[in-house]
Write a structure and sequence with these properties.
The chain has about 525 residues and is of the alpha+beta class. It has 15 helices and 19 strands. Strand 6 and strand 7 form a beta hairpin.
């Protein structure tokens, strides 16, 4: 009831504002952004939060950048790279770059970041599993470093897009004086903005880095991230001029917002996908026996008109997905033949499997913006005799993840996964299918796991492509997952503020301009 009244309030407020004919006055030298999530720490390698990642791209620089439209890698802090052998990469750093502290960026900063802040077991970094492939980082000279891998690892370059060098001189000094906790509230990067203030639970205030190595960037003096968890609050602040960009807007308000002449809606499909994972091996004790049968899992796929849900429930503000990864990720086969909506076939499969009278299963939902899509499936499933029980863990991924890894999430898991800006299945499938690494594995398939290991450990592009095609075919044929849709990033923006929103879900605020 509370959520419904909140939505009603928003709709009424939006309707009133539709008559606005002039943009609320805003300061073009100070851009304010409303975040849907809260940044809990500035100690970058002590979190996997996407909100922290957004802030990192403003305060720090990644070693390489992605093209906002295509996602392709391009030089940034490193100007060139080459593979010396299957396990050794050489990188050249851009000279003349400085940290906000005044320290020069050098190869030691990269070595220190990887070896001391991520791979050092004393740090207990939650990002460690994404970097275990690295054997060593060797400093050749101030602007040259080598990354040595334990085995051939084809994703080194992609990982460089989420590696933000830390200043070893400043970091060691601050830790010695104040302890590790100091780094959660204070930070020092090479990026276009410098930290002014981190107000826990409220906002991050940044100011232009006048010594930034990219001349003319940023084009304004201040950037503030405000943590506004409620969509209604973000929209109200956007319309009143309290913020210039509202992130993560609900799909059911997009069309109304587009009618406001003072605003623009920035929307595009991103890397994040939503899918259902079945407990096909009965890992959780409460999982119904029916789900162990691939015919039943296929029947569920046939029973749900996912396209209609995307169109009518999400208002078309998502993109249909028929394969178990984003088509923009390496090795995707978008034209693969997959089960289509066919309730008659669903009933036939259930009867063939011995479940003509249906059964009841649990659906775990771990993302609020996916919940209404999941709830819309219940009507379709009831028509073929399957009843859903919902367990809502929206906004509680940490709690859900612990239960999932412990084998306690029975039935079906509705999961959104963004691959942490890595355009490769290796940032997705291993968590769910690799043995023994996959903590979320509810469908043990040794051959599938072997294919994923082989793809991770070869530099042969065509071999990797073939392995991933086989993996896709297996996931679909055994119906370990039911792909649902590709999420759209949806931002509401003051019409005078122009910036690019990337396919990697990262807004390029640092390149924004006021017109």
């Amino acid at each position: 009831m509370k959520k419904m009244s909140l939505l009603t309030t928003v709709l009424m407020f939006v309707a009133l504002m539709m008559t606005s004919t002039g943009t609320v006055m805003a300061n073009k030298e100070h851009i304010k952004v409303g975040m849907a999530d809260v940044v809990k720490t500035l100690n970058l390698y002590q979190t996997t939060s996407r909100a922290s990642l957004y802030a990192a791209y403003m305060i720090f620089d990644p070693l390489v950048e992605r093209d906002a439209e295509t996602g392709k890698i391009k030089p940034h802090l490193v100007t060139s790279w080459k593979l010396l052998d299957d396990q050794t990469w050489e990188f050249k750093l851009r000279p003349g770059v400085k940290f906000h502290s005044g320290s020069p960026l050098n190869a030691e900063a990269v070595r220190y970041t990887i070896m001391e802040r991520i791979l050092n077991s004393d740090q207990k970094s939650p990002q460690l599993s994404g970097w275990n492939w690295c054997a060593d980082v060797e400093v050749v000279d101030d602007f040259t470093f080598l990354i040595k891998t334990k085995k051939p690892y084809p994703l080194v370059l992609q990982r460089m897009n989420i590696l933000f060098p830390m200043d070893p001189v400043w970091t060691k000094s601050m830790v010695a004086k104040h302890g590790e906790a100091y780094l959660s509230r204070n930070t020092n990067g090479t990026g276009p903005f410098k930290l002014v203030k981190f107000q826990e639970g409220s906002k991050i205030e940044l100011i232009k880095n006048d010594d930034y190595w990219k001349k003319g960037v940023p084009a304004y003096n201040k950037l503030t991230f405000r943590f506004l968890k409620e969509a209604s609050t973000r929209i109200a602040e956007l319309m009143s001029g309290g913020i210039d960009d509202a992130m993560s807007l609900p799909t059911d308000l997009v069309d109304m917002l587009k009618k406001n002449p003072d605003l623009t809606v920035n929307e595009l499909p991103i890397l994040r996908i939503y899918f259902w994972q079945f407990d096909g091996m009965g890992r959780a004790q409460a999982t119904p026996t029916a789900l162990k049968d691939s015919r039943v899992r296929r029947a569920i796929w046939h029973a749900i008109d996912r396209k209609a849900i995307v169109k009518n429930v999400l208002g078309g503000h998502a993109t249909d997905l028929n394969i178990p990864l984003n088509p923009k990720q390496f090795g995707a086969v978008p034209d693969m033949v997959t089960p289509q909506y066919d309730p008659a076939k669903a009933k036939a499969l259930l009867k063939e499997a011995g479940f003509a009278d249906g059964f009841t299963m649990t659906l775990w939902n771990v993302a609020g913006d996916y919940q209404k899509a999941s709830e819309a499936t219940s009507g379709y499933l009831e028509k073929v005799g399957i009843k859903l029980k919902f367990k809502d863990y929206s906004g509680r991924w940490g709690e859900f993840a612990k239960l999932c890894k412990a084998g306690k999430t029975d039935g079906v898991m509705g999961i959104g996964w963004g691959s942490y800006n890595i355009f490769d299945p290796d940032a997705l499938w291993p968590y769910f299918f690799m043995i023994p690494e996959g903590g979320y594995n509810y469908n043990h398939d040794q051959e599938l796991s072997d294919w994923l290991h082989q793809a991770r450990e070869t530099m042969d592009v065509e071999k990797r492509r073939d392995l991933y095609q086989k993996a896709q075919e297996r996931i679909v044929s055994e119906v370990y997952w039911m792909p649902f849709f590709i999420r759209h990033a949806i931002h509401g923006t003051n019409r005078h503020f122009h910036y690019e929103l990337g396919v990697d879900q990262v807004p390029r605020y640092q390149y924004g301009t006021w017109k």
